[in-house]
Design a protein that fits this description.
333 residues; alpha/beta; Nucleotidyltransferase, domain 5; 9 helices; 43% helix; globular; binds 5'-O-[(R)-(carboxyoxy)(hydroxy)phosphoryl]adenosine; binds zinc ion
C-alpha cells in the first residue's frame, strides 16, 4: 500500500497531492495570479512564488489526506518539461524531503503524467490507446502503448493549441490565461459567424501560426473599420476561433484513429478543459463508436494528482531516481 507524496511545479501552478495505493486522497493547487499583470507567465516570478507556496501546499495536501509525513513511502516530482526555475523549486523540495526521510524519489515526465491522469478515474482506457494532449506548450497525438511506453505520432510545428487560445485572447484585450475566457465567451456566440482557415499539414502534425495570423488580421481590419467591433461581437469571435481550433484538432485525431484502428481515445492537458473540445470529441466519439476518455476538470490543467498516479505506477515498477537527478526544461516522451 504505497503512500506517495507528489509535487508539480513545472509552470505557474504549485501543486501537491497524496496518493495511497493508487487512490488520490488530496490534490492542492496554488494558482499564481501575479502573471495576469504581464499577459503571460514571467519565469522568474513563477519560481519565486513556487518557493512561497510549496511548503504550505504540501502541508495542506497532507492535512486533507489525513496522512502523517512520516508515513510517506516515496516522493514523486515533475522532472520536466517546463520552466527550469519553476522545476528547480519542486525538484529541490522533493530531494530534500526524500533525503530527510530516507525514502526514494520518483521522477515524472509532465506530459506523460497528463495522459496517466486517466488512470485516476474508475473507467480506465485500455492499451494501446490514442491521446490528444493539448496544453499551453504542447499539442500532440500520442500512441500510448503502456504506462511509460508512449510514441508521439503527431505534434505542432509551431504554436501549441493553448498558446493560440491565449494569444487570441490577448489580441482581444482579455487577461492571461485567455483559454478559459475564450471558452466562457464562446458559449454566448455563434461558432459559424466567422471562418478562419484550416492549415493543410501532412501526416498527423499541426500548425497554429497561420490561424493565429489570420485571426490577428481579421480583428485588426475590423477594428479599423469599427472601433467597437470586439465589444459588440466578442461571443461570435470567441465561438468561431474555438470552433476552428477544435476542428483542426479533431480532424487529425479522427484520421489517426482510423489509420491506427484504435477505438479508445483520450483527451489530456489544459485545453481539454475547453467546453467546445469536450463536446466535439464526445459527439465524434459517438459517431465513430469510440470509447472516449475525458478527464475531470481538476485533472485537466496542471495538478499534482497526475504526478502522484504516474508515481504510483512507477513505484510498482520499482523505478526510482537518485539524489543526483536534475530538472530538464526539455524532456522527450
Ligand atoms: O496543461 P496546462 O495547465 O499547462 C501547460 O502545461 O501548458 O495548460 C494550460 C493551457 C493554457 O493555454 C490555457 O489557456 C489553456 O490550457 N486552457 C484552456 C481552458 N482552460 C485552460 N483553453 C481553452 N479552454 C479552456 N477552458
Ligand atoms: Zn501541463
Amino acid at each position: 500500500m504505497p503512500v506517495i507524496l507528489a509535487i508539480e511545479s513545472s509552470c505557474d501552478e504549485t501543486s501537491a497531492s497524496v496518493c495511497v495505493d493508487g487512490a488520490i486522497l488530496s490534490n492542492v493547487i496554488a494558482n499564481q495570479t501575479i502573471h495576469e499583470l504581464y499577459g503571460g507567465v514571467v519565469p522568474e516570478l513563477a519560481s519565486r512564488v513556487h518557493q512561497q507556496n510549496i511548503v504550505p501546499a504540501v502541508q495542506q495536501a497532507l492535512l486533507n489526506a489525513k496522512v502523517n509525513k512520516n508515513d510517506i513511502d516515496a516522493v514523486a516530482f515533475t522532472r520536466g518539461p517546463g520552466l527550469l526555475g519553476s522545476l528547480l523549486v519542486g525538484v529541490s523540495f522533493a530531494k530534500a524531503f526524500a533525503l530527510a526521510k530516507g525514502i526514494p524519489l520518483i521522477d515524472i515526465n509532465h506530459m506523460q503524467a497528463h495522459i496517466l491522469a486517466h488512470f485516476i478515474a474508475e473507467k480506465k482506457p485500455s492499451f494501446p490507446f490514442l491521446c490528444l494532449t493539448v496544453s499551453g506548450g504542447h499539442t500532440q497525438i500520442v500512441l500510448v502503448k503502456d504506462y511509460f511506453d508512449m510514441e508521439v505520432i503527431g505534434q505542432t510545428l509551431d504554436d501549441a493549441a493553448g498558446e493560440a487560445m491565449d494569444k487570441t485572447s490577448k489580441i482581444l484585450g482579455l487577461p492571461y490565461p485567455g483559454g478559459p475566457l475564450i471558452d466562457k465567451n464562446a458559449r454566448t456566440g455563434n461558432p459559424d459567424a466567422y471562418k478562419f482557415p484550416e492549415p493543410q499539414i501532412p501526416g498527423f502534425d499541426f500548425s497554429f501560426s497561420g490561424v493565429k495570423t489570420a485571426i490577428l488580421y481579421f480583428i485588426r481590419d475590423n477594428v479599423a473599420a469599427n472601433p467597437d467591433f470586439i465589444q459588440h461581437n466578442l461571443g461570435d469571435i470567441c465561438a468561431s476561433v474555438e470552433k476552428r481550433i477544435t476542428t483542426i484538432l479533431l480532424n487529425k485525431l479522427k484520421r489517426a484513429a482510423e489509420e491506427y484502428d484504435i477505438k479508445d481515445i483520450a483527451l489530456a492537458g489544459g485545453v481539454s478543459a475547453n467546453t467546445g473540445l469536450r463536446e466535439g470529441l464526445t459527439k465524434l466519439g459517438a459517431e465513430k463508436g469510440w470509447n472516449v476518455f475525458i478527464p475531470k476538470f481538476e485533472y485537466c490543467t496542471d495538478n499534482a494528482a497526475m504526478i502522484a498516479i504516474a508515481g504510483y505506477y512507477k513505484y510498482l515498477k520499482g523505478e526510482f531516481a537518485g539524489q543526483e537527478i536534475a530538472p530538464l526544461a526539455r524532456m522527450p516522451m
